[in-house]
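Problem: given the chain below (55 residues), write out its structure.
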Amino acid sequence: MKLILLTVLMVAIAVILLGIKVLFVKGGKFPSGHAHDIPQLRDKGIGCAHAPEQD
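Solution.
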């Protein structure tokens, strides 16, 4: 039972830490994880796997 409570506590802390910007900053949102939204990847010609290929 201690292990389950410890695990739940650790997951809760991780979620809170990951969501600080979303929870505490006005207008905050999670950053996009899509490759087409990251300038460094676009500069290297790496695109999103879900986007249709352009010739």
